[in-house]
Structures are given as C-alpha cells and as structure tokens.
Fold this sequence. Notes:
84% helix
Amino acid sequence: MKEKHILYRLFLTFMKIGLFTFGGGYAMISIIENICVEKNKWITNDEMMNVTIIAESTPGPIAINCATFVGYRQAGLIGAAAATLGVTIPSFVIIFAISLFLDNFLEIAVIAHAFNGIKIGVGVLIVEAAAKMMKNMKRQWLPSVIMAASFTAMLLINLFSWSFSSISLMLIAAVVSLSIFILETKILRKGGEQK
C-alpha cells in the first residue's frame, strides 16, 4: 500500500511539473528543486546539483533524467517509470493535440503574444535555478574559476556568434578539472613519500 502511494505521488507530482512548466528542462530545474528537495525531501541539495550535472551530460531532456533519478531513489525501477511517465505525458498530449487541431498554431495573435510572455518567464526560471545552484555550491577555488571561465566563454561565443559547441565547453571544463585533480593527487603523494 505504501509503495502504491509513493508511485501515485511521484506520477502526480511530475505530471504537474510537466504540465505547468514551459521552456524545457532548464526552466523545470527550479521547480523540481523546490518540490523534490524543499517540500518533499526526496533528494538533497547536493544530489539535485549532481543530478542536474549528470542529466546535462547524458542523452535526453534534463527534466526526464531528473524525474527518472528521483523516482528511482524513492521506489526503484517502477518509481523511475512512474515519475518519467508523469513528466512526459503532459507534453506529449499537448503537442499531439496541437498537431491535430491547429495547423498554424503560432500564427494566432493571442498565442503568439502569450508565448512572448512565456519566454520572459522561462528566462527568469532559468536564472533562478542557476542562482540557487551557485548558492548551494561549495566555495572552492576550482569550481569558481571554471564557472567564471565558462560563463565568460559562453558570453563571448554568443556575442560574437562563434561556432563553438556547449558540449565542447563542458568537456574542456571536465578535462581541466580532472587534470588539476590528478596533479594535486600526485603532489600530495610525493609530499607523503618524502615524510
């Protein structure tokens, strides 16, 4: 009975997230964090940050990967399936309905204006998610330097319209971080051997 209750809660929670969040995974991060970390305590802040990073670097939308992780943590494989179905069904139904009934959906003036407002809201949600993650990030020099360098690089790439993949930027950040970790480990070992 308890397992059915958690499956029902996972499905409904992620269905609400999927139904009322526009703008894709980045916009959903803030809402997922609010519901899963703060309200339901299904995962911790650190786990949310790790899930977001892993979800960004694995195939598929961030929201689906987050839902799958949270569902798995709460109720195993069946929980992952319930949360994933919950977050994907609203989008599928809405897009399917739009494709059936409206040929020129975005050409309708009211909908075009509504989407202009939604774009602003999505931007605010993304900034809020980034601000929360930065606030919860442990204050260490390496992540701060990588974050500042990545932000600067993305800003320059967008300003000058350079053709550079964000995936390449993530890979460069990972290589730099891993190289520094290996270097620090070797230095610590040498220091330990000399004693």
